[in-house]
Amino acid sequence: MPQITITINGKQCQCEQGATILQAAKANGIEIPNLCNDESVKVYGACGLCAVEVVDDGKGRALPKLMRACSAKAMDGYVIRFDTERVLQSRKIALELLMSDHTGDCQGPCRMNCPAGTDCQGYVKKIANGDYHGAVELIKEKLPLPASIGRVCPHPCEEQCRRGLVEAPLSIAFLKAFAADKDLAADTYRAVCEADTGKHVAIVGGGPAGLTAAYFLRRKGHAVTVFDSAQKMGGMLRYGIPAYRLPKTVLDREIDEIAATGVTLKNNITLGKDITLDQLRADYDAVIVATGAWSAMSMRCKGEALEGVVGGIDFLHDISSGEGTAPDLTGKTVAVCGGGNTAMDACRTAIRCGAKDVYVIYRRTRDEMPAEDIEITESIEEGVTYKFLTNPAEILGVDGKVKQIKLQIMELGEPDASGRRSPIPVEGKFETIDVDLVIMAIGQVLNPAGLDGITLTRKGTIEADENSFLTNLPNVYAIGDATNRGAGIAIAAIGEANRCADVVDSALKGELKPYRKPFLSTKTVTAEDLADRPKQNRVQMPTRPAEVRRHDFDEVNLGLTDEMAQQEAKRCLECGCHDYDDCKLIRYANWQPITPERLAGVRNVHETERRLVAIERNNGKCILCGLCVRVCDEVAKQGILGLVGRGFTTVVKPEFQNPETIAVCKNCHACVDACPTGALKFLGNE
Amino acid sequence: MKLVIGQGSCGIAAGAGKLYDALAPLLANSSTELGITGCIGMCWLEPIVDLYDGSELKARFVQVKPEDAEAIAKAAETGDLSGVQNLIITEDDAAFLEKQTRIALRNCGIIDPNSIESAVAAGGYGAISHILKDGVTPEDVIDCIKVSGLAGRGGAGFPTWFKWNAARQSKGDRKYLICNADEGDPGAFMDRAVIESDPHTLIEGMLIGAYAIGAQEAIVYVRAEYPLAIKRLTAAIEQAEAAGYIGDNILGSGFSCKFRIKAGAGAFVCGEETALIESLQGERGMPRLKPPFPAEAGYWHEPSNINNVETYANVPWILANGGEAFAAMGTPDSKGTKVFALTGKIRRGGLVEIPMGKTLRDVIFDIGGGIREDKAFKAVQMGGPSGGCIPASLLDTIIDYKTLSATGAIMGSGGMVVMDETTCMVAMAKFFLDFTAKESCGKCVHCRIGTKRMQEILSRIVDGKGQAGDVELLEELCEAIKDGALCGLGQTAPNPVLTAIRYFRDEFDAHIRDHKCPAGACSALLRYTIDPEQCKGCTLCAKKCPVNAISGSVKAPHVIDSDVCIRCGQCKSVCRFHAISVG
Amino acid sequence: MKCECNQKPSDMTLLEPILAEYAEIPGSLITILQHAQEIYGYLPTDVIYRIAERTGNTPAKVMGVATFYTQFRFQPIGKYLILLCDGTACHVNGSARVARAIQEELNIESGGTSADGLFSLSIVACLGCCSLSPVMMINEDTYGNLTPAKAVEILRSIREKEGKAE
Fold it and tell me: What CATH architecture is B337-420?
């Protein structure tokens, strides 16, 4: 065949005469989006995604119409572009239209709701199949500390788990910890790093954010050094979370794994004291600030300066850094102010230190408490007393030492901006209790020491771009509790770290690509939709008895057995699309920003059906590219599938009304292989 | 003497059949013959009876009722027209025909469509006979068509000779000549009238085309909704076969051509030539990608030529009178004549054939007599779902392909629907998108989902639920669909919306912003109210209201509950005191 | 072949002449379906299967073709099929009000069949009788210049005629 020369998006290409533009592009390693094309069947031209503009036909003229690359022949001298505004707009509308009638969940709600985007459904499935190593491999694509995070995460994933609409959400977090423990115990997964790039990144702060960023940058082949002011790495995981929740040995093992990838860890180095930001900027190609938020917030009540008033984080930090030597609170009365997880950690730690009475002072009721409910339950089991609807009015002391705390009695008023009913003081009503120690656990803020030159927000956090993570200083990025909205949960900081690592990597490779939230298809599911699912109770995590565990810092949870874990994992409803990773539709939908919501309208509603026994069909996801029909007809020579109806309500159906259809299908799954989305699923030849 | 009754579909629907039944027994034993013809094109005057003395038209009786039969029979017998003066067409109405130039319609309403003799007497099969007997070559034919400047009358206006030549040049074992009689544009009936009134002209035009491209088979794809057209064409083909115009070795020339009718099965998209081919092959009528064009690979992937009825109907005349004669009519851009189906709020609706270059005003006011009930002319819709509305301000637009396209509408196949002040242009845009969305074949994304979304947006606007930005969103969708749809149906589907926005943007804004329909046509935006000054409390409206939305005591002013009211207008039509207003 | 529906088996001998004439001719599927519908009034499932078998198509293919065209029906229809035109001209001249009147009179929607089995209603795009708009066809007969009242009157006269016939 004679060769001709064409130009595609500025790249000169050779191809055979008679080739279509799509074939020519493919032969030259250029991917023009397309959904309905397949070399094994005749050209169809339905999806319109392969539209290209011939800006010069080789004779100095531009062709007036957009061409479909799948059918238009490449002609010698053609100058073709598929990145012009006109082409992008045509493709954008095509994708928005497709998405406006594509009903399905790309990802399960668990993964959607995980701030780090961990593939919950994916690893849960692997656990169900006993593939723990594979599960950890999958988890570590997003999160390098699964054993630790699995223990401490407030698991937003479980909040959205659709099993919750049936009976109770999956125990996703514990499953993660289970798999990670298994993996650490034997045959530990270790990521393979890309070839060294010669670039160096400094990370300040060795907490979950800093360690995560280090891990992923190292995997990309960059040299990474993590600096931390503490004696050991781990940040809040080590110094903010008590050992009864996260044993230090577990954390140590996971940090060792990170170090094993080649990350350099340097402790006892404080920013502003031992090193300066300027120096790091001079010595490294990029700097990531992940210093966290370590200063307990003030309650702004009288008496805070008294001896015996401590910050929650300081209380926990001192115990943790004391290598297990906890203060002796035997016989003492402790008041913990606050309703979050730090308050929980503080009150339960106080119990373990021998305190006689531990009060949690919280201005609303249990329903409004931000702490996890299981923590509240377990703390009550361990002997903590709750003083709901009270607020510290004044801490009273004698000789400069705490003696009493005066509490303002509150009641609930109208809902505030957060949707929670706001507490209002009941005028003149107070209660006073005798206390020896007051722990302020209402939140933490950033300590800005050493951050000279970095712009802070009005809240006193580092101002960092939400998508590029850049601060005002060039090549200086910031993530985690130290930034923007301030302290949050570890998994959120880890998610930022993961995304930031990609951004820094792109910058180090020459072009900074800010994070762009991917477009994902979602659908609404109600309890009624799941009414036919048999109920399967959630496996409960076995714990040590309260009367035993309240005296030590050993782990409360005993861990799941293999049987328990697999049983629990099998409860998964597999909401996310099986084809998400291979779906061409969603891949192209993320080539450029799209907003299908603006074209929202009537959708074709379809039930998943299994008339072809080995093939599950979900027409809600079908984009009517016709590939299954054509492949079944032209390649498999079966002609079992057909297009039925016309226009918007056209639908792919196997031979209609005939229950014997299943018999004629040879289960060759050529249709499934050809489907560019997840509308078809091969269930296996059983 | 001979009485001839116009028996096109519309004539029959207006009572021409009953009239024939009434006249036949009266003339059974008389010297006056009774015959039929096809559609005369003056549809508003149907049923029409013509009185001939030999070939001379003595009188034309219009809007004739069966009870007039006796008087007409008597007048025909005696030649005394004094008793039927009231039935004779007025000069004004007669001018409707006199102002036309009829080429494609030259025999319509004159000959008997059921009789090949009648057609031959009017010159039928003269052109093909001359070609076959006098050694006119296919190239000569194509040349003659090229000189005539004839362009496809289906809407796109592509030069006919070019398609014929391409099909002639293409190599293939067999070649096919196809007539697209799947006249699907709502508001168009030119092709139906030609087939019902003069099927032999179509056959002859197709024979000439088949000879020119070298086709051995000719196929007419007719809408199934045209039973009378199919019946008459079937009969005409049989007659032509018997007369030796169709079949093997036609007129001893060695040229052979078979004829076949294929009835469509109800899919507008089959008017698109590649979809039509798919349908002819017994498939779903989904368009193919072009290229290859049908001239290269059409029916059964053999070289095929497709034209519509009117295009072929012009061909015998052109061959008989020469390409120059045809080209002498029209404008530099558009030659010859064009047939329009003039309907809507027009005073004289029917078939109009005029030379290209006349203005819209000529057709609508001079020939059509303007708007019914002396309402204000608002716009004319041309080109159906692929065309657009041309506003009153452009009434002097010249009818040729280029000039009409510049307005955003198109020449189209000839549908011309006239609208008056009571027509809401947003609702019209929605009407067309309802149509296109329903007729979309569903193959390409832009058309399948795009027209559906456009239709939804337009629906919410006419329902008073439009949102700011809807018009811009519509425009964006329009541009994308024009660019991205696979076939002509999809690519032109935005035209009705784009012209409506272009010329009547204020109506869109009124619906969206003010929740008002300026034409008073969108029922969701209407409000019926009773004027307490005028209302006498007769209770009639309350009794007639189908949803009990009206309350009030006897002899006291009544009130309409707007939340309950379904805007059916019953109350207003029954009120004897003009107390109910709508706005 | 079995089918899920509870229809009586169709009399295939009626279809045989059509199949004998057209089954071997390529591209005749639509023609065969049209004849089949003329014979049975609609396209019963077993007939579709028989057509598929004899034309060498799969039932999915035949169903795909049949459902593409509005002419084909898969349920029996009434003795009188009303095709009410909603073409541009009819629409402009008030076909929607006529439609509403017919729907109320027969208590059916477009596509439905009246309870007595006498009438089926189908609102169609354009019948090409625009000058008589609004227009409807009942079987082969065309009725023009309709008003809601006139349309109802026509239906009632048919019903009366049928009542007498019985």
Answer: Roll (3.10)
